[in-house]
Structure formats: C-alpha cells, structure tokens
Specification:
single chain, 338 residues, alpha+beta, Uridine Diphospho-n-acetylenolpyruvylglucosamine Reductase, domain 2, Uridine Diphospho-n-acetylenolpyruvylglucosamine Reductase, domain 3, Uridine Diphospho-n-acetylenolpyruvylglucosamine Reductase, domain 1, 3 domains, four-stranded mixed β-sheet, 20 strands, globular, binds uridine-diphosphate-2(N-acetylglucosaminyl) butyric acid
C-alpha cells in the first residue's frame, strides 16, 4: 500500500480548495480498502470519494483514503428490467452515459450530477423530478469497525430528501463500495413534467423524446444554470431547500405571494433557498475569491484561491440574512470538513 505525504487536495474536491492531506492513499479494490482500514499506524482515516459535496476548511491530519474502485456490470435481467452493479469509484455522469448507450432508462434526469456513484445514496441525489431512490435496488458498504461487507436494501437506506441512513444512524460507520440499480430496458417511463425540461424539448422540436433526448435536455439546462466545477470551483447546491410546516408556509406566502414553492405533503412545503438568497441580494456577489453564482444563488463558488473558511463565512452570512429577512433557517447541503 503506497502512502503519499503532504498531498494537495485541490484536484480532489470540486470546490478546488487547496487544503493538504498529511497522508493519502488510493483505494482501487475492496482488498485495498480493508488493508488501509487495518493500518494501525494511522488511527484516523478520512474517506474521500468524488469530493463533490464537501467544503474542506483545514488541512486533513488523518490518512485520506481516496475511493477509486471501478467497474460496472449487469447482474441480471428480465424482459423489462436490468440490474446493474456499479463500483463506488465510478464517476456518476460517465456511468449515466454508459446506461444511455445501452438504452437503459431511469437515470436520464440525473445526467451531469458531479461526484462518484458510491456517494449517491448518502444524500439520495436528485434532479429534475427524479431521485436516486427511484431506481435504487441495494448497495454494499464496508463496516469500518469490522471490515465486513454488508448489503443494504432500499428500505434499510431510509431515503428522504437529500437524506439517508448513512447521514444519520449510519454516519461514520460505513464506506459504500457499490450500488445496484434497477433500470428499464423498454417502455421507459419518462419524467419530463419538470417545466424546464418540457420547454427545452420544445425548443429542440422534440415531441416524442427518447431517454437520450431527456438527458441532453437536462445537460443543456444544467450547463445554462450551474457552473462546471472544471471551470469554476463549486459543490452544486450549497444549501438544502428548507421544508416548512403548513402554518409557517401560509404566513410566508401571505407576505410573499410571488415566491415559488413545492408542496411536499398536506402539512409541509419546500421553499427554494435560491429564491430566498436572491431576495437577500446575494446573487452574483463576490467577496474576494468566494462568491454566489450569478445564475443560481443556491450555488457558492470559488473563483480561484478562496479558502474553505472564506466560503464558510459567506455561507454563515447568507444564512443569517435569510433568517433575519424571512424568519426561515436554511442549512448547508454540503459536508463541512474541519
Ligand atoms: N430561484 C431563484 N433564484 C435563484 C435560484 C432559483 O429565484 O437564484 C427559483 C427558480 O426561479 C425556481 C426555484 O427557485 O422558481 C427553483 O429553482 P431550480 O429549479 O433551479 O431548483 P432548486 O430548487 O434551486 C434543486 C436542487 C438541484 C437540482 C434542481 C433541479 C436542491 C438543494 N437543489 O435546486 O440540485 O439540480 O432542483 O431539480 O434540492 C444539487 O443538489 O447540487 C443540485 C444542483
């Protein structure tokens, strides 16, 4: 096992934060993973996967295990469905493109989401009306204490909005090693109800879209609104959309009838944090190298050399302003490291 020292983590996190790892090693297989977890000389370990959902605010003293296990294979299929098992280190979007090449449906709305497949279940990634849980069958994870691989059913994962067992009771106990999804082979169930997808398809003159058409529409929408981490450091939505009770929503909506919202259930409503932040005047603002994206206020960006602390300070300022103006608490979606 090759352990490197004093490695810059800038290429390993999509925010492009230049923190350092004191010790770093690549994990290319399940065997590497159990070997690395057993290294008693490095009692603290830090799991780094695609680095797309984290803000690193200081150097990491622990041994960083960079999850890089690859492989996609068909486990089984019947007339309508195919079950594919994807190793944790596979890039999510490359994997989605692979499913489209094989005409397997279900992931098209989640095209171009940054990050690796192994971390997708942790926050039940979602976009344009579809969430991971809709195609999720099971996943495997190594229990850190025992190095045993355990399988988790969809029920065991307790998926919620940007939430799962792995963010709650299971936090810090497991390392996801693979994900199994059930996709359609024919009669794909398209989900084009999200307004922006419909108008994008219309713009392209497509009336009976294929899954690839939907994927291309989603890619075009994302490119027009969300910054590409390869060009501008960011971690996608920095905040979650706050979910409020019906009573809170009624008071909010009476004061701000123009505000967009999604009804989650009879008793709860989601308010777009991007709208709240824009109303507070932050959209497109820049403070040194830390800023709020000009097209989507939910996304914080690193123009070049912002530190994690600078981004975090901006996040706290925004949270304070939203609370003062609207009485609504918003909280980060990304993991704050440090
Ligand atoms: N809005 C504004 N100003 C802004 C941003 C948004 O007024 O600066 C308004 C929009 O006009 C719209 C509403 O807020 O009425 C919702 O905006 P949008 O459709 O862009 O989606 P979102 O709620 O801001 C969520 C996800 C995104 C996902 C999109 C599309 C969360 C935290 N974010 O954003 O996920 O791509 O829906 O499904 O749920 C991510 O997690 O990294 C991410 C990008």
């Amino acid at each position: 096992m090759h352990i490197q020292k004093n490695i810059s983590l800038k290429p390993y996190n999509t925010f492009g934060i230049a923190a350092k790892a004191k010790y770093f090693c690549e994990i290319n297989s399940i065997e590497d993973l159990s070997e690395a977890l057993g290294l008693d000389d490095y009692p603290d370990k830090f799991i780094l996967s695609g680095g797309s959902n984290m803000l690193i605010t200081k150097d990491i003293e622990a041994l960083v295990l960079h999850i890089n296990m690859k492989g996609i294979r068909v486990l089984k299929e019947d007339g309508h469905h195919v079950w594919i098992k994807i190793m944790a280190g596979e890039n999510w979007h490359q994997m989605v493109l692979w499913t489209l090449e094989h005409d397997y449906g279900g992931l098209e709305n989640m095209s171009l989401i940054p990050g690796n497949t192994g971390t997708a279940p942790i926050q039940n990634i979602g976009a344009y009306g579809v969430e991971l849980k809709d195609t999720f069958e099971s996943c495997e994870a190594m229990e850190i204490d025992t190095c045993q691989i355990q399988s988790f059913s969809k029920k065991a994962c307790q998926f919620g909005y940007r939430d799962s067992y792995f963010k709650n009771e299971g936090k810090g106990k497991y390392i996801l090693t693979s994900v199994t999804l059930r996709l359609t082979k024919k009669n794909h169930l398209l989900n084009t109800s999200y307004g922006a997808i419909e108008s994008q398809l219309e713009k392209l003159g497509i009336t009976s879209p294929t899954i690839t058409d939907v994927s291309e529409a989603v890619i075009a929408i994302r490119r027009s609104k969300l910054p590409d981490p390869a060009e501008l450091g960011n971690s996608g939505s920095f905040f979650k959309n706050p979910v409020v009770t019906r009573t809170e929503f009624e008071a909010f909506s009476a004061a701000h009838p123009e505000a967009p919202f999604y009804k989650v259930s009879e008793e709860s409503y989601k308010i777009p944090a991007g709208w709240l932040i824009e109303q507070c005047g932050y959209k497109g603002k820049r403070y040194g190298d830390a800023g709020v994206h000009e097209k989507q206020a939910l996304v914080l960006v690193n123009y070049a050399d912002a530190t994690g602390t600078e981004i975090l300070t901006l996040a706290h300022t925004i949270m304070g302003s939203v609370k003062t103006k609207f009485g609504i608490e918003i909280s980060p979606e990304v993991n704050i490291i440090g």
